[in-house]
Design a protein that fits this description.
The chain has 392 residues and is mainly alpha-helical. Helices cover 59% and strands 9% of the residues. The C terminus is likely disordered.
Length: 392
């Protein structure tokens, strides 16, 4: 199979003039190799697996796990489809996974006529095919006498077989579907505990018990299913009569099944259950209000508001620092500048003395920075100094 459209997978494996496949055949000592194109549709896949024989029709039947494909070919293609000693049919079955039944067109037409004549239900569903039975029989008679058959007669036979086979498969599928629904309904009416109870607990008569066990009914649930599905099948077992059926029904009526233990509910933490809805409610509100504020506030007002918030934040931090250190702003202003001078320049003067330099006194002025909300030291400049830059 090719995953890309427009690519011939068989041709790619064979190669130009069979170069690729011939090299492999030569390596395998002239072993013959067939290259089959895979297809998802089983009908197409089986048709290609039967090649080189030409297939007239493939009819699939899958009932109770048995997958059977009826392959119809023309008379001249029958031996080619089967192969020497059935080898081609066996390889195709192994390749596709279907049991393959190969028939000629004349054989398939004869089977279709017998199905219509022996199944009133099928004949009622295909009145046109019933009317075509005489024409099909005439063509089959000509075939048996080795008289030539026209292409139109071959086409008529092929269509006749196709209608009968398709309708037969549909009837089987409907019957299997109805049986499955019946089993599901009966299974729902039987307690689950019954399938775990051995048949001995039913206390049946000894010969009835032995017959049921030999038939494969070894649990109370299996017996109840058989009685609900079709009591006539149980009655049809050798050695089971009306008295045995009465005994089975009486024992099934009085038997009691243990009730299943109720499942214990899993307790969930109350705190987590209560906290979760609050998070879910608050998050969307914040998300909804944020865009509204952004649309109503102009750009200038945004900047002013940001500065104002920053100042308020700095003021709060300053107040916190004051409470931490135990010193207020009024006390800071009442202090003498020499305190800051000595504190700020003590290390520098000691370093200069070590180097042999003469220490210089630096005058510092305390200034309140409104933007930062802090008291900072500012270096005083001499008169006449044009450099008005600030050293912080």
């Amino acid at each position: 199979m090719a995953t890309q459209a427009g690519v011939d997978p068989v041709g790619a494996c064979v190669g130009i003039k069979g170069v690729r496949i011939q090299a492999i055949v030569k390596e395998l000592h002239d072993e013959k190799i067939d290259i089959i194109q895979w297809d998802q549709d089983p009908v197409v896949y089986i048709s290609k697996a039967i090649s080189p024989a030409r297939v007239s029709g493939v009819y699939l039947s899958e009932v109770e796990g048995n997958r059977t494909a009826t392959v119809v070919v023309n008379e001249d293609q029958l031996s080619l489809a089967i192969g020497r000693d059935g080898q081609n049919a066996r390889l195709a079955a192994k390749l596709t996974g279907w049991r393959i039944d190969i028939k000629s067109l004349a054989e398939a037409a004869g089977d279709a006529i017998r199905k219509l004549q022996g199944d009133p239900e099928l004949a009622a569903l295909l009145p046109a095919s019933v009317e075509a039975i005489p024409a099909a029989e005439e063509v089959l008679a000509k075939k048996a006498e080795n008289r030539p058959i026209t292409p139109e007669e071959f086409t008529m036979l092929s269509q006749f077989v196709d209608r009968v086979e398709r309708r037969t498969i549909q009837i089987k599928e409907d019957a299997a579907r109805a049986e499955e629904e019946k089993v599901t309904t009966a299974r729902a009416e039987v307690p689950t505990a019954a399938f775990g109870m051995p048949l001995e607990q039913l206390e049946l008569k000894e010969h009835v018990f032995n017959i049921l066990v030999e038939a494969g009914i070894d649990t109370v649930g299996a017996l109840m299913m058989s009685m609900k599905m079709d009591a006539n099948k149980v009655l049809g077992l050798p050695g089971i009569g009306p008295k045995a059926i009465t005994n089975i029904e009486e024992r099934l009526a009085v038997i009691e099944f243990p009730e299943p233990a109720p499942a214990e509910p899993v307790a969930e933490p109350v705190a987590e259950a209560e906290a979760q809805p609050q998070l879910e409610v608050e998050a969307p509100v914040a998300a909804e209000t944020a865009p509204v504020q952004a649309e109503e506030t102009p750009v200038d007002e945004k900047q002013a508001q940001a500065k104002k918030d920053q100042k308020g934040k700095i003021a709060e931090e300053t107040e916190d620092d004051e409470h931490k250190d135990g010193v207020s702003l009024d006390e800071l202003f009442s202090m003498k500048p020499e305190i800051f001078q000595s504190a700020g320049t003590e290390d520098e003067e000691s370093a200069d003395k070590k180097k042999g330099k003469k220490g210089k006194k630096k005058s510092v002025e305390l200034v309140l920075d409104e933007e930062r909300g802090e008291v900072v030291g500012r270096k005083k400049h001499k008169r006449g100094d044009d450099n008005l830059g600030e050293d912080w």
